[in-house]
Structure formats: C-alpha cells, structure tokens
Amino acid sequence: MTKDRILSANRKTATELALFLATIVALLLRLFVPNLLLDLFVSYTSDGGLFLVKFHLAAYAIVLALFVALFTRPFVLEGTDISLFGNILFCSGLIVLLTAFIVATNGFGATGFLIDTYLVAMLAGLLLLTQRRQARHKVGEIILIVMILSAFLGIAELLLQKRLMPFVEGEPVFRPTGLTGHPLSLGAQTVLAMGFVPLTRWRLWLKIVMSIMLFIGLAASGARLATLAGAFQIILLLAYSPWTGLSKVQQIKAKIFALLFVMVLGLMVIAGLFAAGFLSRFGTNLFDDNFMARVRIYQVFSLVSWQDIFTGMDAPTLLALVRTRLDLPYIESAPVFIILTLGLPAAVGFTYIVVKYFNALLAGVPVQAKIAGIMYIVVNLSNNGLATKSPDIIFLTVLIIAFRRVAPAVQMRSGLTGPHHVLSTTSSRPQRL
C-alpha cells in the first residue's frame, strides 16, 4: 500500500470516527436534555426569546452532522436500508410541505412540534443510515444504556423523594422523572428500553437482570398504563421471540416453562414492589381523576365550533378553554391536541405521514422491535407525548434503525441486484441521490 493510500485510509477512518462521536453527542443532548432544563438557559418552551431557540439546540447539531455525513464522503446503503432511506426522505419532505401549508393558513403556532419532534427524528434516522451498521449498533447500545441509567435514577429518586431534573407540576404523589422531563415520559421510555434489551449482544444473565431492573424502574415511575404495558410486553416478548437452536415443538415447551417461571417470579417482584410502595398508585381505583381526565378531554369538541375543528385553534387559547370549561390543567391527549391545533384536514394529512413513517420503520425489523414500538406508541397516545416538543419519536427512530437487520436487496427497476449499492452525494457512480 502506497503512502497516499495509507493517508487516504487514515483520513477516512478519522472522518468516520469524528462523525460517529458527533452523532452520539448530538443524540444524547437531544434525548436527555429535557425541556425544562433547556428553559433554564434559553426560552425553549417559555414565552419570548428568539425564534431560533424555539427548536432544541441539539436539533441544530443533528442537522449539521447530517449535512456533513451527506456531503463530505460517500456512504453505503445495502438491502432494505435503501428503501428505508427513501421512505424517510419522502416523509421528511411531506412534513416540510405540511408545515409550510399550516404556516400559510394558520400561522406558526402549531408547527413547533412538527419540526422538533417529527422532522428532527426523521433527520436523525437519515444520519444513522449514512453510517456503518456496526456504528449504528454502538449508537443504539449507548442510547439504551443511558435509558437504563435513567430508570435506575428514577428508582433512586423515588427512594430519596428528590428529583435530579427540574419539574414544576404539582402532584399529590411523588413520581420520579429520571433523565426525562416527566414521569409519564420515564414510563414510556422504559417500556421502549425493555423491548430492545433482548436485541443487544449482552450475555443472557445480564439481559435478564436489566429487564427486571427496568420493570422496577417502570413501577417507580408511577405511570400506570406504561407499567401494565410493560408487564404485557414481557409476556409477548417471551411468546413471540424466536429461540434459535430449537425445533418448533421444543420452542413451545421451553416458552411455556419460561412463561410459568416469569409469572411466578413476576408475582414475587410485584408483591415486593407493593410492599416497598412502588405500586402505591395501583392501590386506589384505576378509574381515578387522572384516568377520567383522559376521557373528559374529548368533551372539548362540544365546546368549539366546526370552524375551529377544521381550521385549528391557537394552542394557548385551546389550553385556556380546557382549564376554564373542563377544569383540566393539561391536554393529555395527542389526538385532541393535533386535531384542534392543526385543523382536521391538516391533522388527517399529518396522520397519513406518521402512519407511513411508522410502517417504514417497523417493516422487516425483529419481532422484539415491533412489539416494543407498538407498545410505545400505544402508551404515548394516552398522553401528549406525540403532540409536544419531545424526543419520543427520536428514541423510537434511533433504536429501531440501530438494531434492525438488513435484508438482501430485491430486484431493482434498473435490473441491478446485489447487496451493495452506493448512494452518495459525492460518488461518481450512476446510483446517486
């Protein structure tokens, strides 16, 4: 190998390493710097301040890293990564067009979460896809480890009755937040983490220990629906995860034994959690004021006009209406917030984009990722996590792309086949973006 080739290889390695580190830093800052913490430095969610700071500062780092990844070196996409890249790019364009339509018809008020929650998540997905599969997996494992640490922190916060992150909502019962901005966010993210632990390359005993600790952290969060979803998810993961090296009959027998063992162990863990006070919110009626608030919020449709439903309302006006007429402090329903702030036609278009995006993400992924993704979406639909400035969609995007398996490429229209097709803005090959 000549000196020039050695220098070129070293330069390429240094570029990939720098991009890998930049990706990790940008994602960690976006995922684990919650809104209220950022509000201490800039007017991110509070009134006033520059327009530029109304988007998470780490979002700019993700966009910059993506720009570097796309335009400074060629990158390789193989198999189903090609169609996923195209689908994410297409959905990103639709989000931009939808945002432009809403701004033209209804102003900037309701567009913040479209960009900060969904568009940034799609750009983060593109950023990961431009990197090697080994790098993606490492990014996913690092994010997953920090999510586990967040659950551990939630346990410590409950025991100490003190939070690390800022939290301003008054609650009758202390609930931890971990490295998130809200107990419900901690619960939802812990459910997601539980589903991806089986996809790691860790030893079996470590996966079991982490799953148990995550369930304890889930109980500590006080998020009841998330806790129930997490328990149901464990059963689904045991039932539907493939067990290699066993015949179908052997798998059925082994899974039945494992389910019985998990149920016995689960009852012991649940009894211990009740005794420790971690499940105190389950000691009262499940259909309490918090549950009924998620039902009563739909009464707001009877308080607004058809024009408000079709054209959308200003978010502060909607919140004031909910507080005065329904006596609810918050809008804990993603469908209600999306319809009444975007307007029904834009909400329908937005739903189409999101469903298409989720279908593209979950296509061809391991069954564990599908179970975790579906459970995560269901849990988030019970609150406003999908309709506010939050990292929820970024979490889902990053983990699915990091742990997905690439299937062989199918026959392309041009007649080309094979596992490798270079798609690059700097490549001289015919297949260019």
Can you give me a brief rundown of this structure?
Helices cover 65% and strands 1% of the residues. It is mostly helical and 433 residues long. The longest helix is centred in the N-terminal third of the chain and has 30 residues, at 3-32.
Structure description:
The chain crosses the membrane at residues 12-33, 53-72, 84-104, 110-130, 142-160, 180-197, 256-280, 334-355, 361-381. This protein has 433 residues and is mainly alpha-helical. The model is unreliable at 410-420 (pLDDT under 50). The chain is built from 17 helices and two strands. It is 65% helix and 1% strand.
Write the layout of secondary structure elements.
Blueprint: H1 3-32, H2 35-39, H3 57-71, E1 76-78, H4 81-106, H5 112-129, H6 133-160, H7 183-196, H8 204-221, H9 224-240, H10 248-276, H11 289-296, H12 306-311, H13 315-325, H14 334-342, H15 344-362, H16 367-381, H17 392-403, E2 420-422
Antiparallel strand pairs: 1-2
Helix pairs in contact: 1-3, 1-6, 3-5, 4-5, 4-15, 5-17, 6-7, 6-8, 6-17, 7-8, 7-9, 7-16, 7-17, 8-9, 9-16, 14-15, 16-17
